[in-house]
Amino acid sequence: MNVENSKSQMRKGMLEYCIMLLLRRRPSYANEIISLLKSADMIVVEGTLYPLLTRLKNDGMLRYEWQESKQGPPRKYYALTEEGQEALTQLDASWEELAKTVAILQSGQHLLPHTE
Amino acid sequence: MNVENSKSQMRKGMLEYCIMLLLRRRPSYANEIISLLKSADMIVVEGTLYPLLTRLKNDGMLRYEWQESKQGPPRKYYALTEEGQEALTQLDASWEELAKTVAILQSGQHLLPHTE
DNA sequence: CAAATGAACCTTGCAATACAAGGTACTATA
DNA sequence: TATAGTACCTTGTATTGCAAGGTTCATTTG
User: Fold this and answer.
1) Scanning every residue of chain B, which has its alpha carbon at the shortest distance from the alpha carbon of A45?
2) What is the pLDDT of residue B16?
3) CATH code given to domain B11-107
């Protein structure tokens, strides 16, 4: 992921950002991520999440580790890499900017001098 | 546009919202919208904007009106319809929610009780 | 007055991606 | 041993942002 592109990505979706925020706290596996996001009122489904996790892993943002579970099959725990942590820091900044932009648009300060 | 769908849309892009925010202030035409968004640090290009305006118009959110210009060809001024204004109010609320969700995720309050 | 420039409009094709739907494998329980 | 539950993943479709290219009209310039 390059940072130039991040604002563009952010326009499309907050999802990557939200998932990385989750993983900043602690490693997690797909079904847990879905539950956690649901508990934060953000809906995600498997068909969205799996490709996204793979994408982030291929971009070097995440790595995973198989871990046995006491109930059911083993789980693939994803965690942020060093690179992922740095990227996330930049996404934090992008989110700040985006929120600021929206605030400006909401307040109407975007008005240009009347050039007519 | 149905409101059920709006949060989903918002995940993908803030663009519709931002454009409707602009038009809440006053009617505007495509090139001006691009300039205004640029001045608010949000990049949009023609190939994105025209289809989007058409979509919003077809959904009943916008209407337009031709207006002569002192320089160059006439301009198509877009404005929010009644319905568009109502939808925008709901988008305001969706944005609130999204921002709150992000805040929760940033703070780590999303952690579920450890079910192991 | 012809040509170039600029400002407005719009369309087409591509790539990314969210989601619905469906599929596989392992574990535990009935 | 069959069913349910939990985990993994893939495929196909629809949306949509964007790059690139195209048209029209008015003004300016050669």
Assistant:
1) B8
2) 87
3) 1.10.10.10
